[in-house]
Amino acid sequence: MPSVLRSGPYRVYFYSHEPNEPAHVHVDRDDQSAKFWLKPVALAHNLGFSPVELRHIQRILKESESMLLEKWNARFGS
């Protein structure tokens, strides 16, 4: 699970065995986890984050969307 971004307490990464899904990232902090689609940035699954924290994470991902998509495409193809 290569990390592609760290922002504050959040670790953003890809699972290497999900190349057939649309571009997305997983975000972890402590025992909380979420999955976000990247085109457009949108919540797919949430396990424990509050709505306020999810909005904060979504802002971080939107700010890094181009870089995250580039890394997705470099890893899995476009």
What do you see in this structure?
The protein has 78 residues and is of the alpha+beta class. It is built from two helices and five strands. It is globular and about 30 Å long. A five-stranded antiparallel sheet has the order 1-2-3-4-5. It has one domain (3-76). It has helices at 51-63, 65-76, and strands at 3-7, 10-13, 24-29, 32-38, 41-47. Strand 1 and strand 2 (10-13) form a beta hairpin. 15% of the residues are buried. The two termini are 19 Å apart.
Unreliable runs = none
Mean pLDDT: 93
Number of strands: 5
Work out the helix count.
2
Widest sheet, order of strands: 1-2-3-4-5
- Please tell me the total number of domains: 1
How far from one another are the termini? 19 Å
> What sort of overall outline do the alpha carbons produce when their principal axes are compared?
globular
Written as H for each helix and E for each strand, in order along the chain, the element string is EEEEEHH
The major sheet is characterized as: 5 strands, antiparallel
Strand proportion = 35-45%
Q: What class do helices, strands and sheet pairing give?
A: alpha+beta
Helicity level, as a percent range? Answer: 25-40%
Radius of gyration: 11 Å
